[in-house]
Design brief:
Length: 352
């Protein structure tokens, strides 16, 4: 399909929704690293308006025609995703840089449109939001829509009642039954928003980095040492070793139980991105996007991905173990090399 054909089809689809037009194409200045004018070699540093505190966080709009989510951070980045349901359903993603002028939020970036049959169109886009007050955001790529604060909006509550005080950790009952309760924070963290310590699977001591050379349970698949199918509560369990015998790493089955019986929202809490998990009783836990560590001390995918060990080895490749992988697009479990440094979110047995 030609580029012009794709644009024409997209124009027709958007016009079907209250006569709206497709976002205009704009030139993308790759050399500048942003969608803006590339003037002289030494451009003057712009005088930036302060970011309203009410803006940062997540905003959502849902009605019979659209379902859209936008997240604004303090680095003047905005990401968005959602669907337009009428007249036909199409999926959209946005990636913006934004500036602030009074109560107007000026966005420039790229919009990606899934056109069906594995075809994705990409367009330059400019759009304007208006921050009416702490609880109303209007405009955006589809004028006339009204957005409300999502779970990550920093001016309102970011979690339902969970931790009773600041003396972490706490065992949180998410109301779905089961044999275990989940800790409110990671091993090594003093609050739910912090990453805490990183551990290789089967190692109970944290390290600055996690290169292949030096992993105590096998530096390569040929010499991997078998320490069990399930290390929960054993001498190899980082939760038990650091928090005491009542705490342990969750098994893969316990992770699946959590995923099936709770609601999940990618959000901000305490200025950190991560997954807010809400139980049937309204209680919550927050898992920060701490990423993981490899050969260097700097975490990879920090701020983007929640990765946390389970106690379960991967049965088909025992050089790897099962873990979470949560991000803004959804939640999965996956398996990675045991030598990598991941966070640990403990569980404890439910008392009868």
């Amino acid at each position: 399909m030609k580029h012009q054909d794709i644009k024409t089809m997209t124009d027709m689809k958007i016009q079907g929704l209250r006569g709206l037009r497709m976002l205009a194409l704009a030139a993308v200045c790759v050399a500048c690293g942003a969608l803006s004018s590339c003037g002289s070699d030494e451009p003057e540093e712009p005088k930036l308006e302060p970011i309203p505190k009410a803006l940062t966080g997540q905003w959502t709009c849902q009605n019979e025609a659209v379902s859209l989510t936008f997240e604004f951070d303090t680095y003047r980045k905005c990401s968005g995703w959602g669907r337009i349901h009428e007249p036909e359903e199409h999926h959209y993603e946005w990636s913006y840089n934004y500036s602030v002028s009074g109560n107007k939020i000026l966005c420039k970036g790229i919009v990606y449109v899934d056109e069906g049959m594995a075809t994705r169109a990409q367009y330059g886009s400019e759009t304007v939001f208006v921050l009416e007050n702490d609880s109303t955001l209007t405009g955006g790529p589809i004028p006339g829509l009204v957005y409300t604060p999502g779970h990550g909006h920093q001016t309102g509550p970011t979690a339902s009642p969970g931790c009773p005080d600041e003396n972490h950790p706490h065992a949180i009952d998410l109301g779905y039954g089961g044999d275990v309760l989940w800790a409110c924070c990671n091993v090594g963290a003093s609050s739910p928003e912090l990453a805490g310590d990183y551990f290789a699977w089967g190692d109970v001591r944290t390290r600055p980095s996690f290169p292949r050379i030096g992993y105590k349970w096998g530096e390569n698949p040929q010499d991997v040492k078998d320490i069990g199918d399930d290390i929960a509560g054993t001498e190899y369990d980082a939760a038990t070793a650091n928090w005491g015998e009542e705490w342990m790493m969750p098994t893969l089955d316990q992770l699946w139980e959590l995923m099936r019986n709770t609601d999940w929202h990618w959000t901000y809490q305490g200025g950190k991105q991560g997954m807010l998990i809400t139980g049937k009783n309204g209680a919550t836990i927050f898992m920060p996007a701490a990423g993981y560590k490899g050969d260097t001390e700097k975490p990879m995918e920090a701020g983007e991905t929640v990765m946390s060990w389970t106690a379960t080895v991967h049965k088909e490749n025992r050089y790897k173990a099962e873990c979470t992988q949560f991000n803004s697009k959804g939640l999965w479990y996956r398996f990675v090399e045991r030598r990598f440094g991941l966070t640990v979110r403990p569980v404890c047995a439910r008392t009868k």
